[in-house]
Amino acid sequence: MTVIAHGIDMVDCSRLREAITRHGQRFMERVFTPLELDYCQGRKREIEHLAGRFAAKEAVLKLLGTGWGKGICWTDIEIRNAPSGKPQVRLSGRCREIADQLGLANILISISHIETHAIASAIGCTGTSMVK
Protein backbone atom coordinates (compact mmCIF):
# COMPACT_ATOMS: atom_id res chain seq x y z
CA MET A 1 0.00 0.00 0.00
CA THR A 2 1.30 3.45 -0.97
CA VAL A 3 0.00 6.76 0.36
CA ILE A 4 -0.80 9.08 -2.54
CA ALA A 5 -2.87 11.87 -0.96
CA HIS A 6 -3.90 13.43 2.35
CA GLY A 7 -6.68 15.79 3.43
CA ILE A 8 -7.61 17.31 6.77
CA ASP A 9 -10.46 19.55 7.92
CA MET A 10 -11.79 21.10 11.12
CA VAL A 11 -15.39 22.20 11.74
CA ASP A 12 -16.70 24.68 14.29
CA CYS A 13 -19.68 22.90 15.90
CA SER A 14 -21.53 26.17 16.57
CA ARG A 15 -21.38 27.14 12.89
CA LEU A 16 -22.78 23.76 11.86
CA ARG A 17 -25.53 24.11 14.48
CA GLU A 18 -26.41 27.54 13.02
CA ALA A 19 -26.58 26.13 9.47
CA ILE A 20 -28.87 23.33 10.63
CA THR A 21 -31.09 25.79 12.52
CA ARG A 22 -31.24 28.15 9.53
CA HIS A 23 -31.80 25.55 6.78
CA GLY A 24 -33.36 22.66 8.71
CA GLN A 25 -34.05 19.20 7.36
CA ARG A 26 -33.38 20.26 3.77
CA PHE A 27 -29.76 21.04 4.69
CA MET A 28 -29.41 17.79 6.63
CA GLU A 29 -30.66 15.66 3.72
CA ARG A 30 -28.49 17.50 1.20
CA VAL A 31 -25.30 17.03 3.24
CA PHE A 32 -25.76 13.68 5.02
CA THR A 33 -26.90 10.27 3.79
CA PRO A 34 -29.74 8.46 5.59
CA LEU A 35 -27.15 6.11 7.14
CA GLU A 36 -25.15 9.05 8.51
CA LEU A 37 -28.28 10.69 9.90
CA ASP A 38 -29.36 7.43 11.54
CA TYR A 39 -25.94 7.17 13.21
CA CYS A 40 -25.76 10.78 14.44
CA GLN A 41 -29.31 11.86 15.25
CA GLY A 42 -30.44 11.25 18.80
CA ARG A 43 -26.92 10.71 20.11
CA LYS A 44 -25.90 12.50 23.29
CA ARG A 45 -23.48 14.72 21.31
CA GLU A 46 -25.38 14.85 18.03
CA ILE A 47 -23.85 18.09 16.71
CA GLU A 48 -20.33 16.83 17.44
CA HIS A 49 -21.01 13.62 15.52
CA LEU A 50 -22.52 15.51 12.58
CA ALA A 51 -19.58 17.93 12.60
CA GLY A 52 -17.19 14.98 12.55
CA ARG A 53 -18.93 13.54 9.48
CA PHE A 54 -18.91 16.99 7.85
CA ALA A 55 -15.18 17.42 8.52
CA ALA A 56 -14.52 13.92 7.15
CA LYS A 57 -16.33 14.75 3.90
CA GLU A 58 -14.30 17.96 3.55
CA ALA A 59 -11.06 16.07 4.27
CA VAL A 60 -11.89 13.53 1.56
CA LEU A 61 -12.54 16.32 -0.95
CA LYS A 62 -9.17 17.84 -0.12
CA LEU A 63 -7.59 14.44 -0.62
CA LEU A 64 -9.31 14.18 -4.02
CA GLY A 65 -8.17 17.72 -4.88
CA THR A 66 -11.58 18.80 -6.13
CA GLY A 67 -13.50 21.03 -3.76
CA TRP A 68 -17.29 21.05 -4.20
CA GLY A 69 -17.38 21.73 -7.95
CA LYS A 70 -17.22 19.38 -10.91
CA GLY A 71 -20.55 17.63 -10.31
CA ILE A 72 -19.79 16.45 -6.78
CA CYS A 73 -22.61 16.01 -4.26
CA TRP A 74 -22.20 15.96 -0.48
CA THR A 75 -23.74 12.50 -0.40
CA ASP A 76 -21.14 11.15 -2.87
CA ILE A 77 -19.08 10.71 0.30
CA GLU A 78 -20.57 8.59 3.06
CA ILE A 79 -18.93 8.01 6.42
CA ARG A 80 -20.06 4.72 7.90
CA ASN A 81 -18.80 2.58 10.75
CA ALA A 82 -17.38 -0.92 10.70
CA PRO A 83 -18.86 -3.27 13.33
CA SER A 84 -15.84 -2.34 15.49
CA GLY A 85 -16.87 1.33 15.33
CA LYS A 86 -13.97 2.32 13.07
CA PRO A 87 -15.11 4.98 10.57
CA GLN A 88 -14.92 4.05 6.90
CA VAL A 89 -15.41 5.98 3.68
CA ARG A 90 -17.82 4.92 0.94
CA LEU A 91 -17.61 6.86 -2.32
CA SER A 92 -20.16 7.03 -5.11
CA GLY A 93 -20.94 9.19 -8.13
CA ARG A 94 -18.35 11.71 -9.27
CA CYS A 95 -16.17 11.16 -6.17
CA ARG A 96 -15.87 7.48 -7.01
CA GLU A 97 -14.85 8.35 -10.59
CA ILE A 98 -12.17 10.78 -9.39
CA ALA A 99 -10.83 8.26 -6.86
CA ASP A 100 -10.58 5.65 -9.60
CA GLN A 101 -8.71 8.11 -11.86
CA LEU A 102 -6.26 8.82 -9.05
CA GLY A 103 -5.73 5.10 -8.40
CA LEU A 104 -7.16 5.27 -4.88
CA ALA A 105 -8.09 1.86 -3.56
CA ASN A 106 -8.57 2.82 0.08
CA ILE A 107 -9.22 5.94 2.13
CA LEU A 108 -8.24 5.76 5.78
CA ILE A 109 -10.24 8.20 7.91
CA SER A 110 -9.84 9.40 11.46
CA ILE A 111 -12.40 11.63 13.22
CA SER A 112 -12.20 13.35 16.57
CA HIS A 113 -14.49 15.86 18.23
CA ILE A 114 -15.07 17.91 21.35
CA GLU A 115 -17.95 20.20 22.30
CA THR A 116 -16.65 23.08 20.17
CA HIS A 117 -14.87 21.48 17.21
CA ALA A 118 -14.55 18.36 15.11
CA ILE A 119 -11.54 17.35 13.04
CA ALA A 120 -10.98 14.65 10.45
CA SER A 121 -7.97 13.39 8.55
CA ALA A 122 -8.17 11.31 5.36
CA ILE A 123 -5.31 9.37 3.77
CA GLY A 124 -5.67 7.98 0.25
CA CYS A 125 -3.78 4.80 -0.57
CA THR A 126 -3.19 2.44 -3.45
CA GLY A 127 -3.41 -1.31 -2.93
CA THR A 128 -6.23 -3.66 -1.97
CA SER A 129 -9.56 -1.97 -2.54
CA MET A 130 -11.60 -1.23 0.55
CA VAL A 131 -13.38 1.88 -0.83
CA LYS A 132 -16.69 0.84 -2.32
Structural notes for this entry:
- With 132 residues, the protein is an alpha+beta fold.
- It has one domain (3-125): Alpha-Beta Complex (Ribosomal Protein L22, Chain A).
- Helices cover 42% and strands 28% of the residues.
- It is built from four helices and five strands.
- It has helices at 13-31, 34-40, 46-64, 93-102, and strands spanning 3-12, 77-81, 87-91, 106-113, 117-125.
- The strands form two sheets. It has a three-stranded antiparallel beta sheet with strand order 1-5-4.
- Helix 1 (13-31) crosses helix 3 (46-64) and helix 2 packs antiparallel against helix 3.
- The chain is globular and about 40 Å long.
- The model has no long low-confidence stretch (mean pLDDT 92).
List the helices and strands and how they pair.
Elements: E1 3-12, H1 13-31, H2 34-40, H3 46-64, E2 77-81, E3 87-91, H4 93-102, E4 106-113, E5 117-125
Antiparallel strand pairs: 1-5, 2-3, 4-5
Helix pairs in contact: 1-3, 2-3
Question: Can I get a quick summary?
Answer:
Helices cover about 40% and strands about 30% of the residues. The chain is α+β, with helices and mostly antiparallel strands. The chain has a single domain, classed as Alpha-Beta Complex (Ribosomal Protein L22, Chain A), CATH 3.90.470.
Which descriptors apply to this entry?
132 residues; alpha+beta; globular; Ribosomal Protein L22, Chain A; two-stranded antiparallel sheet
Evaluate the radius of gyration.
14 Å
CATH fold group: Ribosomal Protein L22, Chain A
Number of helices: 4
- Going by helix content, strand content and strand pairing, the class is alpha+beta
The low-confidence runs, each spanning 5 or more residues with pLDDT under 50, are: none
The separation of the N and C termini measures: 17 Å
Overall mean pLDDT score? 92
Shape assignment: globular
Going by CATH, the homologous superfamily would be 4'-phosphopantetheinyl transferase domain
Proportion of residues in β-strands: 25-35%
Order of the strands making up the biggest sheet: 1-5-4
How many DSSP-defined strands?
Answer: 5
Order of helices and strands: EHHHEEHEE
Q: Give the % helix.
A: 40-55%
CATH class term: Alpha Beta
Q: Write down the domain tally.
A: 1
Describe the main β-sheet briefly: 3 strands, antiparallel
